[in-house]
Amino acid sequence: MFKDKIFASHPCFAEGRPSNNGRIHLPVCPVCNISCNFCRRSLNAEEDRPGVASAILTPGEAAAAVRRAMALCPDITVAGVAGPGDTLASEHALDALELVGREFPGLIKCISTNGLMLPEKAERVLRVGVDALTVTVNAVDPAILSRICDGVVWGGSYIRGEAGAAILIANQLQGAALLAREGVALKINTVLVPGVNDAHIREIARAVSKAGAHMHNIIPLLPQHKMSRVPPPTCAQLDRARADAGEYVRVFRHCRHCRADAAGIPGVSEFGGAVYGDRVFEETFSHG
Question: What domains sit in the chain, N to C, each tagged with a CATH number?
């Protein structure tokens, strides 16, 4: 029953088809704890600024934003957090969803995360009542991931290269498996980077399928930051990667690269400006 609700009502879990259901992303995350080479933001534990959202909400402002969004778009079924920093790098996202859940108990609660803090935060994720989880897993081989992610903030230190990548991979798979076993719907996002992880998609899909993933979303690289000169994948490369992933897990094919402050029905309506005020719209990449 629960999975039926998620797959029918969540636009990112809609059995691989476009959905007429809406979502609101609450931009409540001020920091990130990993440094992705395709992301223009400076992703670290010290810098506190918006990345793909126009402003950062406090958790206390989140319920008011949902209230405004649902007045504009009654088809919203999901309240999610996908940035602009990482959802679990601070307590803000779970604090916000806890408040939203009290006022809007019928909404699906969703988070998107890089997964570094998943094992540590899993108990609270469950206590808040998160229904759906997206984890961005770009490789399950530290040598490959170290070419995509420069390093991670872990144990009070910045750990670079393969050592940092190994910590991130272990935490992603452990945390994802733990929450999937507890009934949370699990989607995996993978950024397809030609020449780096394009021949590695089967291994990623095999690992996340074993962890309990219900869906895999292969996202084409948008060249920027340290990867600004890396060409985006061709349609043929993207199709091949999705076919590789599809050998192990259902593939989601309708990702819209949503902003961290999006509101409305993906690909149909966008009310973020009305919900959050004036924004500068910009093509960019977010975690989820």
Answer: 20-269 (3.20.20.70)
Is 60 exceeded by the pLDDT of residue 50? no
pLDDT for the residue numbered 275: 67
Q: What is the DSSP string of the chain?
A: -HHHHHHHH-TTSSTTS--S-EEEE---B---SEEETT-SS--SSS----SSSS-PPPHHHHHHHHHHHHHH-TTEEEEEE--BS-TTSSSHHHHHHHHHHHH-TTSEEEEEE-STTHHHHHHHHHHHT--EEEEE---SSHHHHTTTEEEEEETTEEEEHHHHHHHHHHHHHHHHHHHHHTT-EEEEEEEE-TTTTTT-HHHHHHHHHHHT-SEEEEEE----GGGTTSPPPPHHHHHHHHHHHHTTS-EE-------TT-EESTTT---HHHHH-S----------
Per the CB < 8 A criterion, the answer to whether 29 and 87 are in contact is yes
Residues paired with 94 in a beta bridge: none
CA distance 284 to 13: 22
More confident residue, 286 or 2: 2
Q: What is the pLDDT of residues 137-166, one digit of tens each?
A: 999 999 999 999 999 999 999 999 999 999
Q: In what order do the strands lie in the sheet with 34-36?
A: 34-36, 149-154, 157-160
Residue that wins the pLDDT comparison between 188 and 14:
188
Closest CA to 51 of 38, 39, 36, 41: 41
Q: Is the pLDDT of residue 43 over 80?
A: no
Q: How sure is the predictor about 8, in pLDDT bands with cuts at 50, 70 and 90?
A: low
Q: How deeply is 87 buried, as exposed, middle or buried, from its count of CB atoms within 10 A (0-12, 13-18, 19+)?
A: buried
